[in-house]
Design goal:
mainly alpha, about 85% helix
Length: about 575
């Protein structure tokens, strides 16, 4: 039994090995077949015919060497590599019959590499031949295109050479060099040396584009430098002369020197143009533009300033007259009111200071007029001076109006203060009479002290209003104090009167319980003592109210509410 099992296992292994060898062989044969098919396809390509067509091109120099390299590479493929591929394929098939799988795989990979290498070589040959043909066509087409371009450029340069100014000789030289390079390029192309011709063509194309751009840009640049800037400089020079003759003055007048400097820069830029240094020419023309614009702005500033100076002169004259009249009016009013009132805010000193400022401003205006007449000041400088004076005039007027507002209300404030003082005196007397009508046993000391304090305040107010020089600031301060204290006095008076009246009502109500309630009886006696002897009506209310609430809960609050609903204000 054991021998049979071993035999079965061995048999199974043999079968598996046979199947593995079979599968390996079939796979290898399939791959070899595919690689042979690729090789046959490569052989079928008409590369030889393409080489024959390439040979027809007039090739020399490096182009010929490139062609010969392509031809040699294909000959090697056709004469050697295809044969070696067939030999390697046969070797792989032979090895596949054995059981050396590693060697078979290595030989198969070598076959794969040979086919790939051959395919790459053929692709490179075909691409190179195509490139040679394409380059030949492009160069021959370029010959015609460049010929037309150079003929056009030469014609343009000859017909319109006046537009290029000093750049004309350099452009002619540049074009001549292009034409010489073109002749060399044409010769190389005709001879078939496309590799060398390509290098020349690349440089030629770039320089031709450069030539076209220069011929497009130079006319405008030359026009700016030779016509536009010359006209502007002449216009500025003439304008400056006319303005000076018309009385204009320019600060640190260097207009003529600046115009000469700009013209010198213009000449230098023309030299740059003659050397075809267009980038520098463009930069320099930008600087010239800025300098010319600055000159126009300088003159425009003075012309505009003159208009403002004329307008400001009229305004300064009218403002000066108005400020003097205001100051004089202030002086008269301050003198009149100074007979009756004190001035606490330096009104007199400020008025005199403002008059000094007005006088100094007038002197400055006259001095500026003298400078302008003597042509020692420019309109722009004078405009700045005028605007400073106008701003100063606004500040002076603001201060004078402020003084006027303060003093013009003094008499009205005095009348109002006297009226309020009389009103407050009447209110105090009304409070006094109202309290007297109550026939109270007396008044608390604190209340009486407050009442007399308010009365004394009214006396001080009356005294302040009857002095030779009234201090309205002090009067207003006293009015504010009196007003607040009278309101407080009214509140205190109402409070005392209410407390006294309620104490009387509570004493009357307590009579109901005097015989039946000892606490109410004792509280009534104590409350009457505080009422009649100490005039402490609040204490009397509290003592009696508490006792009554113990005998009749809630009666105290009910009596207070009833009184407050029926009462009328003592002082209105």
């Amino acid at each position: 039994m054991f021998n049979f099992t071993v035999l079965a296992i061995i048999l199974l292994l043999v079968v598996i090995a046979y199947l593995a060898i079979f599968v390996m062989q079939r796979t290898t044969v399939k791959k070899v077949s595919d690689l042979r098919a690729r090789k046959d396809q490569l052989e079928s390509l008409k590369v030889r015919e393409e080489l024959v067509e390439g040979r027809k091109l007039p090739l020399t120099g490096q182009s010929l060497k490139n062609y010969q390299k392509f031809e040699s590479s294909f000959n090697d493929v056709q004469n050697n590599k295809f044969l070696k591929i067939d030999q390697q394929a046969n070797l792989v098939l032979f090895e596949a019959r054995g059981i050396n799988f590693i060697k078979t795989r290595n030989e198969l990979e070598r076959l794969q590499g040979m086919v790939d290498d051959t395919e790459t070589t053929i692709k490179d040959v075909r691409a190179g031949l195509l490139d040679l043909k394409k380059t030949d066509e492009e160069h021959r087409e370029a010959i015609n295109d460049l010929k037309k371009k150079y003929e056009g450029l030469r014609k343009h340069l000859l017909a319109e050479n006046f537009k290029f100014g000093p750049a004309n000789p350099a452009l002619d030289k540049f074009l001549s060099q292009l034409e010489a390079d073109y002749d060399e390029f044409t010769e190389l192309t005709e001879n078939g040396d496309h590799a060398t011709a390509s290098d020349i063509y690349e440089q030629l194309a770039m320089e031709t584009t450069q030539m076209e751009k220069m011929m497009a840009d130079i006319p405008d640049l030359f026009d700016q430098l030779n016509i536009k800037y010359v006209d502007q400089l002449n216009e500025l020079a003439q304008g400056h002369t006319k303005l000076v003759e018309a009385g204009y003055v320019f600060p640190n007048d260097s207009v003529e020197q600046e115009l000469q400097a700009i013209d010198s820069q213009r000449q230098q830029v023309l030299n740059l143009l003659a050397d075809l240094k267009l980038k520098e020419v463009t930069e320099q023309t930008g600087y010239i533009e800025q300098r010319i614009d600055a000159m126009y702005e300088t003159m425009e500033t003075e012309v505009t300033a003159r208009k403002h100076v004329t307008k400001n002169a009229d305004r300064l004259s009218s403002d000066l007259l108005r400020l003097r009249e205001q100051n004089q009016t202030l002086s008269i009013e301050l003198d009149r009111l100074g007979q009756s009132f004190q001035f606490n805010h330096k009104e007199l000193e400020t008025r005199r200071t403002l008059l000094e400022q007005i006088n100094m401003a007038e002197e400055q205006i006259n001095h500026n007029d003298d400078l302008l007449e003597a042509k020692e000041i420019s309109y722009s400088e004078l405009q700045i001076q005028q605007e400073k004076l106008l701003k100063q005039f606004e500040e002076i007027e603001t201060q004078q109006v402020d003084i006027w507002d303060k003093i013009s209300g003094l008499e009205k404030a005095d009348r109002s203060a006297r009226q309020l003082g009389g009103q407050y005196q009447k209110e105090v007397e009304a409070i006094k009479h109202a309290v007297e009508r109550m026939n109270l046993p007396g008044l608390p000391v604190a209340y009486l002290e407050y009442f007399y304090a308010v009365s004394n305040e009214l006396k001080r107010l009356a005294k302040s209003l009857n002095t030779n020089l009234i201090d309205m600031d002090e009067v207003q301060r006293q009015l504010n104090i009196v007003s607040a204290d009278i309101d407080t006095l009214k509140e205190k008076t109402e409070e005392i009167v209410d407390q006294a009246a309620l104490t009387e009502q509570l004493l009357q109500y307590a009579n109901r319980y005097r015989a039946s309630n000892e606490r109410v009886a004792a509280a009534s006696e104590q409350a009457r003592m505080f009422y009649e002897r100490d005039y402490n009506f609040k204490q009397a209310m509290d003592i009696l109210g508490s006792a009554l609430d113990s005998a009749e809960p809630g009666v105290y609050e009910r009596l207070v509410d009833s009184y407050m609903r029926r009462k009328t204000p003592l002082v209105k």
